[in-house]
Amino acid sequence: MLRTFSGLVLAAVVALVPTSVLPSGPAGAAAPALCFGRPVTIDLNKPGAPDPDRPRADVVLGTPGADLIRTGGGEDTVCAGDGKDRVFLGDDKDTGYGGRGADLLDGGGRSDHLYGGTGDDVIRGREGWDQLEMVDLAKGDDRVYGGVGNDTFRNANPGDVYLGGDGGDYFTDANDCTDCGSAVITYLGGPGKDLAVSGAGVEIVEGGDGADTVSYVGVGEDGGPGVTVDLAVDGPQDTGPGGTDTLVDVENLVGTSGGPDVLSGDDGPNRIAGSNGPDQLYGRGGDDDLEGGDGLDLCDGGTGTNQFMDCEETL
Predict the structure, then answer these.
(1) Helices (H) and strands (E) in the chain, counts
(2) Are 227 and 255 in contact (CB under 8 A)?
(3) Which end of the chain is more exposed for a tag (fewer CB within 10 A), N or C?
């Protein structure tokens, strides 16, 4: 349906992660400590526990207090526990889970998977292609830093700030908050071709350098109403089912899966794709690529050398 944006339009996948460490074991026996289903090799609640900063793969369980956990080599997994924890992962493919406090999770090198918990967390992916997820279901004002690499940011909550850094990053508001008032989710893309999948809440998207895309494919219903989005608007705009969005340094748009949508570009080159409904696409200035999709679509390229696909009426 959106052939022009194949490889850009991604389905938002919500990873449901439990928020507690559950023990298991035979009746009458001491249950082994687990970190999200994995047997713990270093339990910091036990006296004389080894230092996690060692050259092997460990599963580390934090305490209810404020912990400083630093891992070494190997693919480590850390469950921070309660308290205001600081977790610094090593230079391998590591996994970190925040607890109920205001935690710092630092991914170190390679490609890491970091989950924020409840509380006002700071998550830093650093180098590598990281997957950074908030699992606190709209609890806490978090700051998430992707760093260098093509990073994936999932489950953004009202009040969160996501900073992509270098690389082509993927942002998605999987919680789709419809009753959050003026609470804002902020996506800062940085250099690279970034994709932000908008939800129904209040969002600020700053694409930064590179050809960046905002997609509304996950909002609305079949048959409409669709969104109305204008890249030339300076400041907040009411998009309809896509909420009130502020788009800065965004070059490309993808409409809803139901439509009808009204999507307008700016004076630069834009790539704009509609949906199943009778969409209206306006390129304005620059060399634009317009794709109407299914339905009876109107495509007006404006000035410049424009390309049309699946447009029943062109101007």
Answers:
(1) 0, 31
(2) yes
(3) C
Q: For residues 68, 70, 76 and 80, what is the CA-based torsion angle, rounded to 10 degrees?
A: 10
Picking from 90, 54, 94, the residue whose alpha carbon sits closest to that of residue 75 is 94
Task: Say how many C-beta atoms besides its own lie within 10 A of residue 281's C-beta.
Answer: 29
Instruction: Look up residue 300 and give its two tokens.
Output: 């007006």
pLDDT per position as a tens digit, 16-66: 333 334 333 344 456 779 998 899 999 999 999 999 999 999 999 999 999
For residue 149 the two structure tokens come to 């690499």
Task: Decide: 127 and 165 in contact? Cβ < 8 Å.
Answer: no
Whether residue 108 contacts residue 124, with contact meaning beta carbons closer than 8 Å, is answered with no
- Please say whether the dihedral angle defined by the alpha carbons of residues 3, 254, 160 and 192, taken in this order, is positive or negative: positive
Residues 167-207: tens digit of each pLDDT = 666 676 544 444 445 557 777 777 788 888 888 888 889 88
